Amino acid sequence: MEISKSEYEYSNPKTFALPVDSEHKATEFRLFSVAAPHMRAFHLSWVSFFACFVSTFAAPPLLPIIRDNLNLTATDIGNAGIAAVSGAVFARIAMGTACDLFGPRLASAALTLITAPAVYCTAIASSPISFLLVRFFTGFSLATFVSTQFWMSSLFSGKVVGTANGVAGGWGNLGGGATQLIMPLVFDLIHKNIGSTKFTAWRIAFFIPALFQTLSAYGIFFLGQDLPDGNYSELHKSGDKHKDDFSKVVYHAITNYRGWILALTYGYCFGVELTIDNIIAQYFYDRFNVNLHTAGIIAASFGLANIFSRPGGGMLSDLTAKKFGMRGRLWTLWLVQTLGGIFCIFLGKVGSLGLSVAIMLIFSVFVQAACGLTFGVVPFVSRRSLGIVSGMTGGGGNVGAVLTQVIFFRGSQYTTEKGLELMGVMMICCTLVIMLIHFPQWGGMFCGPSSKGVTEEDYYISEWTSAEREKGFHKASMKFSENSRSERGKKVDSAPTPADRTPNTYV
């Protein structure tokens, strides 16, 4: 007697170290576990993203030395800072597409390895243009953020996805602060202990982040797994995963206005964070006449807040969703990001060193928490085009950083403190568009769900044509619809689930 595949899986269910839902996504987040595939992928992803962040922002803490060696003007430094974050704009969108089609493991490992040579080549930069180019190509590596968020959204259930995305993204972003400490220490070690000249020591120092990034790429490739049930290539061959149509994946991403709104708002939380990473060490060095090491420590404290602030934002998103559903996530995102804008304005206005540091630390908590809150919403925008929506949102962060630096921190049109004030105003204004986001099955900030009785199934299955549904390509979306009912919350009305339309289990 022949046993069907579904009957075999029912009688021989897969087992995981963490409790899972019907998609085999983990319903718990155990930070200190390294269990495969869920928690192992979490640790691989944040470490790799951390390495890429260290590489991208390895130059700013050494700029007082580098600018003397390469004769960089203020405009050269501004252009290089813009180049470092502009490279990832389109790379993040491309990364989202690669994740949708080939899986986060291969996409992340490939980009991390491809961009590592640019970090090594920083050691041989000899002019303003060559310095700009190596920073530009190194910045492409920041697109690994998209694969990190995609990976976490593919492995963790909606109940904890905000936490998983927040901790992975936050600990990765931690590299922006850690490099402010690492690079000056490595420089001092080479310069003072080994005896290299200043202009040689900063060049040798870049081999440390380059090697770290290279090793992380190999770790992702050999130890990671795309989905709870296996890698994309294996699942495509076995027929367990439909190989999607590129044009349709793109179409459903770009026609969903919610993704564009989140891209804009992310431009003024993560984009602001990138801007601060580029300017803050030099700002304290020049304005308050502190030494290079002290400026590095102050700047590092901004990025190091990611150890708890961005994860805190993700956790807060999940916590509010338990009671208030998606509407709670949206309200919390708007409030936290608006407060971040207010403290950014204060940072530009205060004139004493101690108060500036204190305001900067408070500001860092809010702006980074807003990043975590954003990616508490992103996984629910689209099931079929999750990668591209994540890429659009992530790319929006880089676009915001580029525009902000071009407008406020390039050349001498504005002082840095005035630029900080105006950046805060921009944050507050751009965050207002969150009020326009509305999910027909859950509602928005001010409006409840659609009166037409749209359900989670209606929303996510609408991304598939009737012909595709007949072939069963929509089954993963059906499972996701069932698992996303938690976004209704306990205190918010939402569309009912007709008993005759949604089966209890999907095969």
Percent of residues in helices: 55-70%
- Would you identify the CATH architecture of the largest domain? Up-down Bundle
CATH superfamily label of the largest domain: MFS general substrate transporter like domains
Named CATH topology of the largest domain: Growth Hormone, Chain: A
GO cellular component, one term: endomembrane system
GO molecular function: nitrate transmembrane transporter activity
Biased composition (Basic and acidic residues): 482-493
Subcellular location: Endomembrane system
Describe this structure in words.
This protein is mainly alpha-helical and about 500 residues long. The chain has two domains: about 35-435, Growth Hormone, Chain: A (Up-down Bundle), CATH 1.20.1250; about 440-505, no CATH class. It is about 70% helix and about 0% strand. It has helices at about 5-10, 40-55, 65-70, 75-85, 90-100, 105-120, 130-140, 145-155, 160-195, 200-205, 205-225, 230-240, 245-255, 255-265, 270-285, 290-305, 310-350, 355-375, 385-410, 415-430, 455-460, 465-470, 475-485; strands at about 440, 445. Strands 1-2 form a two-stranded antiparallel ribbon. Strand 1 and strand 2 (about 445) form a beta hairpin. Helix 4 (about 75-85) runs antiparallel to helix 19, helix 9 (about 160-195) packs antiparallel against helix 10 (about 200-205) and helix 17 (about 310-350) packs across helix 20 (about 415-430). The longest helix is centred in the middle third of the chain and has 41 residues, at about 310-350. Belongs to the major facilitator superfamily. Nitrate/nitrite porter (TC 2.A.1.8) family. Belongs to the major facilitator superfamily. Phosphate:H(+) symporter (TC 2.A.1.9) family. Keywords: Membrane, Nitrate assimilation, Transmembrane, Transmembrane helix. It is a multi-pass membrane protein.
